[in-house]
Amino acid sequence: MSHMSLKLAGLGAIMLALSACASSDAGGPAPGSAEEFQVNVGDRVFFDFDQYNLIPSAQATLDRQAAWLAQYSNVTILVEGHCDERGTREYNLALGARRANAVKDYLVGAGVDGSRVQTISYGKDRPAELGSNEAAWAANRRGVSVITAGAGS
Amino acid sequence: MTAQNVGEYAMENGQEKQRLNIFWARGILVLGVVLAFLSGLAPHSAHALLRIDITQGNVDPMPIAVPDFSGVSESDKQIGADVARVIGANLERSGLFQPLDPRSFIQKDLDFTSTPRFGDWRLIQSQALITGQIVGDGQGRLRVEFRLWDIFAEQQVVGFAFETTPENWRRVAHLVSDAIYERLTGEKGYFDTRVVFIAESGGKGNRIKRLAIMDQDGANPSFLTDGSYLVLTPRFSPTTQKITYMSYFSGLPRVYLFDIESGQQEVLGDFPGMTFAPRFSPDGNGVVMSFERDGNSDIFTMNLRTREVKRLTQDSNIDTSPSYSPDGSQIVFNSDRGGSSQLYVMNADGSNIRRISRGKGRYSTPVWSPRGDLIAFTKQYQGRFFIGVMRPDGSGDRVLSEGYHAEGPSWSPNGRVLIFFKETPSIDETGRGYSTKLWSVDLTGYNERRMSTPGDASDPAWSPLIQ
Description:
The complex is a heterodimer of chains A (about 150) and B (about 475). In chain A, strands 1-4-2-3 form a 4-stranded mixed beta sheet. Residues about 1-25 of chain A have low confidence and may be disordered. Chain A folds into 2 domains: about 1-30; about 30-150, CATH 3.30.1330.60. Chain A contains 5 helices and 4 strands, in the order ααβαβαβαβ. In chain A, about 50% of the residues lie in helices and about 15% in strands. Chain A has about 150 residues and is of the alpha+beta class. Chain A starts with a helix and ends with a strand. The radius of gyration of chain A is 20 Å and the shape is globular. With about 475 residues, chain B is mainly beta. Chain B folds into 2 domains: about 10-185, 3-Layer(aba) Sandwich (Rossmann fold); about 195-460, 6 Propeller (Neuraminidase), CATH 2.120.10. Chain B has helices spanning about 75-95, 120-125, 170-185; strands spanning about 10, 15-20, 20-25, 30-35, 60-65, 70, 95-100, 130-135, 140-150, 155-165, 195-200, 210-215, 220-225, 230-235, 240-245, 255-260, 265, 275-280, 285-295, 295-305, 310, 320-325, 330-335, 340-345, 355, 360-370, 375-380, 385-390, 400-405, 405-410, 415-425, 435-440, 450, 455-460. In chain B, the strands form 8 sheets. In chain B, strands 3, 4, 5, 6, 7, 8, 9 and 10 form an 8-stranded mixed beta sheet that branches. Chain B has a 4-stranded antiparallel beta sheet with strand order 13-12-11-34, with no helix packed on it. Residues about 1-30 and about 40-45 of chain B have low confidence and may be disordered. Classes of the chains: A alpha+beta (about 150), B mainly beta (about 475). At the A-B interface, helix 4 and strand 3 of A face strand 26 and strand 30 of B.
């Protein structure tokens, strides 16, 4: 019995050490990391059904992305354009391209060099949410900025 | 009894001549020979009694008997049973025929070289009878002979023989099915064809998609890509054993060409942006597709010989899913230039663009019928998806199928049947309950049924009649 509890205590100590490693001293993601970009800046924006214009909340997210990209000028990104499942495949490939490009245009307008921003469309073929309901569809109508190089770890 | 002279063979009634049919498929020669009529019972070909009217949608399928084809050796008998089974299944699936239960057959001593006892077949309400035999030469060649009989007129309607190798028996069964279908409906058959599609596996969130091909009855499925990269929207060449499709092979979404026989694939063109939604021109010498640049998608053609590219649309809206008319003079496509996705027709040089869809909802994926008389499409309206057809001028818009999600019709080569895919919705947040399957429906809206596929499937496209 006493042997067992000793072992458990040891395991607890290891877990504490691991979680300490994963966080910066400030307790959040490391500055300049992809994790920081996802968690603190916000890596995605959302669109209305069959639309590619940037709604105010999307613009606010992209303003933060532009500021972060200005701070970490070695970072390059790939903007993925995605759609919900309520459309046909080829049309959604075109619509996803529209959305990815709307994100890119906004970032470039906010001062990010266009050469740092690539785009790709996945249409409806890479859903983030797997349900078949309004909430899932809204979450899937998205532009996601994925860091391809230059971020800290 | 049979004639095998190369060239033309005159039927015994002297009214009709039919050329020897020679088919090449995947390196195998199939000889088709017209069989003479037995005992002078030639039909009055201008007044063939046995006939199916396929224009109205068939409510009463024709009862037909398809007994096992006879054979002397055990292996020939087995092939004879298999051939009859495949023919019966083809005819049944068309919705136009009702193959009768073999247990009801009264005449058990069918002899291929003599006339059947018509009374025995009338008794079980059969209107047509197919008899056949398999003659193996013991040296790797096989002769499949069949006759189609009109039970009420008590005469042979047609007879053919095909020569091939034993492993090709299934193809011969499709050729026999096509001959019967053609004779009884007056239209070309579509059984000796294949379907290219996207085979899907894995969860909804991490789908593995592979380019796949199978016979139209679901037999002989095989994968053409390994699933390590995303592939979408394959289409058959109307003239060669080639497929055009879209692939993320290099990480970039591009249109590719795949040679089924060699397994070779190549990217089409050197475009800076995404290329997608490819379809062959009717002569097989070109591909029409969309090219996206800076977010805007327009329609281009590429000549496959010279690789010359021509831009057809210039506007700032989404233009995609182009499809040629069978004479090559026009292209139908979908565009959101009017505010939502609708169907437009233009001349093949990009001039004279006019909207044809006028109904409520969003229209997309237009596909011109190989007969030229209709355009099939996907429609979205009030949260439902529909497969429908309209005339090229937009009139006669009607729905053939509907569901939570139905998409992407493709025509059988005779323009009578459409294949498409249907998805079921997820029932929870893990994607459980989601599936995608291939379906077919007759042009009349009757006879909707699921096609057999190995697992989930989407984006089907029908081959032309195999050359």
